Amino acid sequence: MRNVIVAAIQMRCVPDPAENLRTAERLVRQAAGQGAQVVLLPELFEREYFCQYLQACKADGMDVYLLEYTTDHKLIRRIKKYCRKKKYDYYIADSLELGI
Which of 67, 58, 66 is closest to 95 using CA atoms? Predict the structure, then answer.
């Protein structure tokens, strides 16, 4: 059996697809430089897809729920404010417990 080093890229997408591509390329090079043989990019990373998708779901009458696991109080305040403004439901917890 052969070991394979995999990197999962997380990045903040902006409205400019060219900037997103430059960021993705930089992060892929960085991951490869650290030994990654497989690099996974976020789905539809070239656009601000996630926010657009949530807005479209809400406009179609669907319930939107955001889940976040953090203890960062500044981030929690921002999430709450954003969700109230957009009329999204949210759940914030300081841990994610998985029962087996």
Answer: 67
pTM above 0.70? no
CA 94 → CA 28, 63, 68, 69, distances in Å? 30, 23, 8, 5
Cα angle vertex 82, ends 76, 86, to 5°? 145
Neighbour count for residue 20 (Cβ, 10 Å) = 21
Burial of 31: CB neighbours in 10 Å, binned 0-12, 13-18, 19+: buried
Local structure of 6: helix, strand or coil: strand
Neighbouring-strand partners of residue 91: 67
Place of tokens 């656009």: 47
Helices (H), the chain: 17-33, 49-59, 73-86
Q: What is the pLDDT of residues 39-93, one digit of tens each?
A: 988 776 666 666 677 777 778 887 777 767 778 888 888 888 888 888 888 778 7
